[in-house]
Design brief:
L,D-transpeptidase catalytic domain-like, 6-stranded mixed β-sheet, about 35% strand, 8-stranded mixed β-barrel, 2 domains, mainly beta, 20 strands, 2 helices
Length: about 290
């Protein structure tokens, strides 16, 4: 069983490596840079106990559905997390380098950005033949929507009632808490030649741009999503998709980016104010 504590838990990570700078600078179609700032994250216990990543209390508007997502955060004492095809089965094989050669999937902890390796859980507490428990998790690798299994003992489980839905045709990002709509923002999305991918993804990191008044605004959330058009290049950092602010708010409501989702700066700061956690689900639909 996965128990949940009522205490809210907020994760914030500031980028430290140039790889993440390349990610957002190419992924969003603007000039600018992200800072090599100090890294911080809230402490995470090593045992597989549960904490709550819910937002603070808000005023409800429209109830659309009941929703709760469980989140797996890798034990901070582990330098990497191994991923398996099934509970207790073989290691998951992924073509990480794009050269057609599959290799055992092992994700670094923390990520290159400094964020703790974090996953949205697809199915929890699945027993291996020997009795060890595994969680099936969504993975921040290609192809989009991939999943695999991690050892329950290697992660701490928390939950969030926050979720985001992005409508590409309506150019909106809607944030819900326990199924209640609490905010709806206008966004800019991918241009026709570099569309924003659709599917179910999750927040994997939070980075702070060097210049809060620049192309990416004050904050950028990295997602588990990857561009289906722009592949792994030195400039694009594996085509990872982000949600970030902008210095071109006049372009909100249009299809203009290289795949990233742009928000008004006050909107992305509102997401931070509502304590959007790593692992929060983000569903992008046409």
């Amino acid at each position: 069983m996965i128990a949940a504590s009522p205490c809210p838990h907020r994760f914030t990570v500031i980028v430290t490596l140039l790889a993440t700078v390349a990610l957002f600078s190419a992924g969003c179609g603007d000039n600018g840079s992200l800072s090599a700032a100090s890294t911080s994250s809230s402490s995470t216990p090593a045992s597989a106990t549960s904490t709550d990543s819910s937002a603070p209390e808000v005023t409800p508007t429209t109830v659309v559905a009941d929703s709760r997502t469980f989140i797996a955060t890798v034990d901070p004492t582990l330098a990497a997390i191994e991923v398996y095809d099934s509970p207790g089965g073989a290691r998951k094989q992924v073509d990480l380098d794009g050269d057609g050669a599959d290799e055992d999937l092992s994700l670094p902890n923390p990520l290159p950005s400094g964020a703790p390796a974090t996953f949205a859980i697809k199915s929890a507490d699945q027993a291996a033949p020997g009795g060890a428990l595994f969680h099936e998790v969504y993975l921040p690798v290609r192809p989009n929507g991939a999943s695999g299994f991690v050892r329950a003992d290697d992660v701490t489980v928390s939950h969030t009632d926050l979720a985001a839905q992005i409508s590409l045709s309506n150019h909106t990002l809607t944030l819900t808490n326990a199924g209640t709509v609490i905010e709806t923002f206008t966004v800019a999305v991918g241009a026709p030649d570099t569309p924003t991918p659709t599917g179910l993804f999750f927040v994997k990191e939070l980075v702070e741009p060097t210049n809060a008044d620049g192309a990416y605004g004050p904050l950028a959330y990295g997602l588990s999503a990857h561009s289906e058009v722009v592949l792994d290049t030195e400039a694009f950092a594996d085509g990872v998709i982000g949600i970030h602010g902008t210095n071109r708010e006049d372009l909100l409501g249009t299809d203009v980016s290289h795949g990233c989702v742009r928000l008004a700066n006050d909107a992305v700061l509102r997401l931070e104010e509502l304590a959007v956690p790593l692992g929060m689900p983000v569903r992008i639909s046409a």
